[in-house]
Write a structure and sequence with these properties.
Largest sheet: 3 strands, mixed
Number of helices: 4
Shape: elongated
Strand order of the largest sheet: 1-2-3
Strand content: 15-25%
Order of helices and strands: EHHEEHH
Radius of gyration: 32 Å
Helix content: 25-40%
Structural class: alpha+beta
CATH architecture of the domain at 2-38: 3-Layer(aba) Sandwich
CATH superfamily of the domain at 2-38: YefM-like domain
CATH topology of the domain at 2-38: YefM-like fold
Length: 85
């Protein structure tokens, strides 16, 4: 077990983390009394992605949104560009 005061632990944090990852118990003390223990964090298991999560919403977009021409928009796109503006 490694015990170290806070001031020293600040300068050796990388080393202390490596020791904890290797399985060693690392205790950081404040004023000579144990304050915290470094432990390895467990990785959370990844959840597989689910397809069709929003399927229940039944969003139906009509084909006209994509395929029917918008005459006002086409007129704006076909208009000549005025370089003075």
């Amino acid at each position: 077990m490694t015990t170290m005061n806070i001031a020293e632990a600040k300068s050796k944090l990388s080393e202390l983390v490596a020791r904890a990852e290797a399985g060693e118990e690392v205790v950081i003390a404040r004023n000579g009394k144990p304050a915290v223990r470094l432990v390895v964090a467990k990785a959370s298991p990844k959840q597989p992605r689910r397809l069709g999560v929003w399927e229940h919403l039944n969003i139906n977009v009509p084909d006209s949104v994509f395929f029917d021409p918008d005459s006002e928009l086409e007129a704006l796109m076909d208009a000549p560009i005025d370089p003075t503006t």
